[in-house]
Amino acid sequence: MKIGKVQESVLKRSILNQIHTRREEILLGASVGEDCAAVAVAEDEMLVMSTDPITGTVKDIGSLAIQITVNDLASAGAEPLGVMLTVLLPENFSEQKLRYLMAQAEAACAAAHVQIMGGHTEVTKAVCQPLVSVAGIGKAKKGRLVSTAGARPGMDIIITKWAGIEGTAIIAKEKEAELLEHFPQRFIDQAKRFDQMLSVLAEAQIAVRYHVSAMHDVTEGGIFGALWEMAEASGVGLEIDLKKIPLRQETIEVCEYFGINPYELISSGSMLMAAADGNTIVRELEKQGIHAVVVGKATQGNDRILYTAQERRFLEPPKSDALYQVV
Known about the structure:
A hairpin with a 4-residue loop joins strand 12 and strand 13 (312-314). The model has no long low-confidence stretch (mean pLDDT 93). This protein is of the alpha+beta class and 327 residues long. A seven-stranded mixed sheet has the order 8-10-7-11-9-12-13, sandwiched between helices. The chain has a six-stranded mixed sheet with strand order 1-2-3-6-4-5, covered by helices on one side. The longest helix is centred in the N-terminal third of the chain and has 18 residues, at 95-112. Helix content is 32%, strand content 26%.
């Protein structure tokens, strides 16, 4: 199998189709495009859970691991509460590096008001670089849970911030020496600072307040992957104006240099939403300094179309993230 997310056909055939046991307390379970699960714990409240590893980089792995899981919880409309960490380390990893990794994780938790509740730390020959996997838990009131599967025909499709910002930051850090041969230091420093935009907590809270119907944080597979997953989970088609998908100039130039597709680049910090009135949500986000744009609509049927003034083409199922072609 290829590096990256397991292909959707394999996911359905060999993972989801093997899950048969059901419990009535489980309100949201494993499905294509869903990043969280939800469990009813009281008449009006549920626990929301998510889990994710960081595998595409070793730079800032502590903070990235926390941020990704917190974003998953926020995209389900939940308030993040705590995390459990599994930290697997190679034999040559020093205690000083471990302390730094944990300091990063704690700083990210403090920023999101989330507690590290526990976990497991191990040195093992099974890994050649540090691997951090985070299980997160949050809470949400019944009726406020937002899933990836909530898009309906006619709804506006919204993207917040810019596609590819996480991947751009990772590449700028991992490949700084190479990039310095072609770009000025200030350009690379600006790209590295994209890691300061990776939280989607603020936009998730605004979107829930204004009755968003579906949310999906744009992670591995980039915006193309996230669009496909939302459409697949919701059983809808899409008509997306490719030129409206927001990109930063730094992302465009870094992707051109390495010959990769910015729309297939890991994009934490960007949120994909579906809403009956996307323009209202965009206005409220912009009032809070969060860039957002309506890029198209959900449609009847299964056709997922990307169009420009010159051409129309079909969106394809998610591919291996473009980041893996570089780092």
